[in-house]
Fold:
Amino acid sequence: MADLYRLVFVDSWAWWVGGVIIGALVPLMYYFTNTALGVSTGYGSIVKKIVPGSKLRWLNTKAVTTRPDWRLYFIVGMIGGAFVSARLSGMPWVTQSMGIFTSSVNWGFATLAFWFLCGGFLLGIGARIAGGCTSGHSIHGLSNLHMSSVVATAFFLFCGYLSTRFITLVFFK
Structure:
């Protein structure tokens, strides 16, 4: 029993296990909800609940205003699942450690929080400009052979590569 606990909650899973699970979710989402698996609309749902009177066009789309709030539960589940997994594997309740990056820059908590908040803001803007997030385009869109998703995924990969190279050159000389 202890080995199963360690295998499921402590040890890292093989990359292909996550791929199989995510790949199985796409057809299941279509079958049960007739919708795509994506995250950015869930964030829109959260923002719409916080600022219900917003005039922003994307917060008043049909996807955000009329669909069931399963995406809200999906995001809460992702965050909560990560927290529970971290706690079960022995990690502290709160940490500002983000691996190699935070161990290399030696910034205070406020600077790190600002850095990641700005990064999240830019990701949100990019998802709106691209008409969906990386999971929506790269998982759902590619599997349905949408040309816009092919283009968006190519840009996600290219810009991700450029960003990684920039951060590596600036912070890891």
